[in-house]
Amino acid sequence: MKRAFEFLIERAIFLSGIASIIFVVLIFFFLLKEGLALFQTESLTGFLFGKNWYPISDPPRFGILPLFLGSLLVTLGAIVIAVPLGLASAIYVAEVAPPKLRDILKSGIELLAAFPSIVLGFIGIVTLAPFLKSVFHLSSGLTALAGSIMLAFMAMPTIVSIIEDAIVSVPKNYREGSLALGATHWQTIYRVVLPAASSGILAAVMLGIGRVIGETMAVLMITGNAAVLPTSILQPVRTLTATIAAEMGEAVSGSEHYYALFAIGIVLFIISFVINLLADLFLHRKAAR
Amino acid sequence: MVNKIEVKNLNVFFEGVHAVKNLSLEVKEHDILGIIGPSNSGKTSFLKALNRLNELYPNSRTSGEILLDGVRIKEIDKHSVRKRVGIVFALPLPFPLSIFDNIAYGPRMHGIKNRARLSEIVEKSLKAAAIWDEVKDRLQTNAFKLSGGQQQRLCIARTLAVEPEVILYDEPCSGLDPISTLKVEEAMQELKKNYTQILVTNNVKQSARVSNRTAFFLMGEMIEIGETKQVFTVPKDKRTEDYITGRFG
User: Fold this and answer.
1) What pLDDT does A287 receive?
2) How many domains in chain B?
3) Chains A, B: CB contacts under 8 A, how many?
4) Are β-strands B85-88 and B166-170 bridged in parallel, bridged antiparallel, or unpaired?
5) Which of A98, A151, A269, B208 is deepest in the core (most CB within 10 A)?
């Protein structure tokens, strides 16, 4: 009886373990099958480097360059805002803030992560977009910059809490050793604590980028959704993710448009994969040294 | 000889424990003062009070006076107290940097940028800590690649590099084998010419070998202080005698 129970439990755990892998593989092949079908009619270079995305014109044009640049611009903007701010805030929480304030700040940051992105996007539309419009004298505040700022807010909690963890887990003796040599608190943070925490900091940045690239709904609402080649961060742009979200409902199943959206999915998959791979390589190189 | 350090009625409380009780003593220039005593007798708390390192712990409190060259250390900037009174910890812990950068760390923090000057300091410090010959060909390798004994001498060199006047050792040889211990002790003898040193040790014999004066701490009180020879041959207090002959609990 007992052995049969053990056997059942073991099988159940094995099945749940293997299920996740099976699902990943199935999704991957489905994505490939549907996405690659586009290239029966469209050339790879036309898809990747085409400057026009007119999926329902005649003949349709499926160039994702404007979408790709839109994603790139919004992501870079978000990272430029979120990483320095997140790093500074993590340093403050981990090293400078008195214990009581630290607890309050930490829960505050975690609360920020609890906001659904759609809510942030909505708040962005009614507050941030008009603000940007009046500051930069634009015809519309729904721009790449607005998207970057909102996404920076979304990536911040991840970045801050992972960097904070990395800083706190730096051995206390490093700090003491540095301070005992007469170094100041800031010198100690900058020269010893941050380098020792660098792999955690990099992981935080990578995860932040991952969150930003994969984010759909907020950017769909706030970036203006114009699939044109962006020349400035103050222009409306459209991202890869937003395109899929906006058009999947109206694309006819089995049409070229439908396949093109899946092909965009493959591109997104490759981007995320490369980021994870880079983060992993860096972390392991660090660990092996 | 001049008094380098004077301690008057020092009390240290650490996490509610009265770790050092009403301690008064003097350390003369070029002395090596050995401090012996069982664990929890306040030896480390005393050392950390001497270079204001205990201020890093929010629940630590001190009263009484510590004078460095006749000046109260509370009135000196804490960074310069720590520069003048260096400390070597029980567990050698190099920074995750190269050997060179570990030694150059302190001088750099105090504003020395010139590469040639830094090289000079690094060489001088490593020589003084009796480790130069073992590492001179691989200054750019990571300090973690060194053995435990080498890491401890590296940490001594790191302390020397900021040109302190006093060096405190907190059980510097507790994790080392006898040969590495001997090398560290030899380094201390060399350093006697230029530095005042205080050596906290769990190893009674080490104090007998290295120090010229010895103090015996018990439960936060200093039971006895005197010339090492006198303390080890004709201790004044029965408890000192029991401890150094190994009859203590």
Assistant:
1) 54
2) 1
3) 66
4) parallel
5) A151
Which H or E run includes A244? Answer: helix A240-247
Rounded to a whole number of angstroms, the distance from the CA of B236 to the nearest CA of chain A is: 36
Q: Which domain holds residue A67?
A: 9-288
Residue A4 lies in a domain: no
| Residue of A99, A175, A180 lying closest to B82 (CB–CB) | A180
| A30: number of Cβ within 10 Å | 12
Helix (H/G/I), strand (E/B), else coil: B8: strand
Residue A235 exposure: Cα atoms within 13 Å on the Cβ side = 15
Residues ≥6 apart with Cβ < 8 Å to A273: none
pLDDT tens-digit readout, B91-113: 888 998 899 999 999 999 888 89
- CA of B163 vs chain A CAs: smallest distance (Å): 10
DSSP H or E run through A68: helix A65-91
| Phi, psi for residue B88 in degrees, rounded to 5 | -115, 125
The number of folded domains in chain A is 1
A3 falls within a domain: no
* Partner residue opposite A182 with nearest CB, options B93, B95, B110: B110
Residues of chain A numbered 142-171 and touching chain B (CB < 8 Å): 171
Q: Once rounded to an integer, what is the mean pLDDT over residues A157-170? A: 91
- Residue B109: its chain A contacts at CB < 8 A? 178, 181-184, 187, 191
Give a yes or no: residue A277 inside a domain.
Answer: yes
- Among B44, B79, B125, most A C-beta atoms within 10 A, so best to mutate, is B79
pLDDT attached to residue A289? 47
The CATH number given to whatever domain includes residue A86 is 1.10.3720.10
Average pLDDT over residues A169-186: 90
What does the pLDDT look like over B178-188, one tens digit per residue? 888 888 888 88
To 10 degrees, the CA torsion angle through B153, B159, B161, B162? 180
Mean pLDDT of A234-251: 88
Neighbours of A80 (CB within 10 A): 13
**A217, two tokens:** 């709904």
Contact between A173 and B97 using a beta-carbon 8 Å cutoff: no
A2 within some domain:
no
Q: Which residues does residue B11 pair with via DSSP β-bridges, in sequence order? A: B63
Question: B90 or A23, which is more confident?
Answer: A23
Angle at A237 between CA A235 and CA A241, to 5 degrees: 160
pLDDT value of position B248: 65
A97 in B contact zone (CB under 8 Å): no
**In terms of residue numbers, what domain contains B238?**
3-245
* Cβ–Cβ below 8 Å for B95 and A177: yes
Terminal CA-CA length for chain A: 51
Per-residue pLDDT, averaged over A88-108, amounts to 91
Band (pLDDT 50/70/90 cuts) for residue A210 is: confident
Judge: A177–B86 Cβ closer than 8 Å, yes or no. Answer: no
- B77 reaches A (C-beta below 8 A): no
Distance between CA atoms of residues B137 and B134, nearest Å: 8
Residues of A in contact with B106 (CB under 8 A): 181-183
Could you identify the residue written with the tokens 């721009």? A143
